[in-house]
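Changelog-adjacent note: as of this version, every example in the card shows the full chain rather than a window. The one below runs 249 residues end to end.
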Amino acid sequence: MKTDNKLEQVVYAYWARRFGCEREDFRQPGTLVLKEKELAGTGKAHLYHIDRMSVLRADPGLAEQAGLADGCNRDSGSLSASQLQALAPVGVESTFLDYYLDARDLKLFPVPAPFTTRRLDAQHEDSLLLDLYAACTEPELDAADIDADKPDAVICGLFAGTRLAAYAGYRVWEEHFADIGVLIHPDDRGRGLGKAVVSTLCEWCLGDDVLVPMYRVFSYNAHSCRIAQSLGFREMVVIETLKSGEAAP
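Full-length structure tokens:
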């Protein structure tokens, strides 16, 4: 990403293409409703909050039950999860926070001694990754969005001697973003390694001057949120998934 570009231009341009609207639309209150066939019968809705605007991708039946018509409505403001719950019997299943980083905002965090960092070759050093995965629980791997069968494109390892103590990697998402995942060995948590390894990875990524670092995290994961915030990431998109208890079987 060129440092003279505003981060909003890059991020909002992507989401505008995704939802078929204009980048400037996000700066005004309103709600864009998209009834999506692939969600039909699921009772699900995905509610995005981007700047001052909300976008609802919904099961058509759920949208109709809530009395929401297709298209953009500026008159009623930006839809919140609580407002949708007042219109239809839905509960919030999960909330993702999307953080993005401008090169000018990166706050580097040093690697504490005696740890060292280097890039991993996932193809030839998979045993190191597998040992780290084995030390973590399935929920921890899920929260880090780790897929052992599909290693990230770029992986930064933080080592205690020859042992892999922390991992940060990114995959290229939608040709614009470096989607970051981070995992710390249980024996090494609480030592600032998450900030150190993500900081190093972001420095590599931004050195390419092409991709925007992106950090997606569950809202309940306060520790992971603090990693992004401490390094200069900005929370720019909130994604809530809601589901009705009356979805079709």
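Structural remarks: The helical segments are 7-19, 60-65, 81-87, 126-135, 138-143, 193-207, 222-230.
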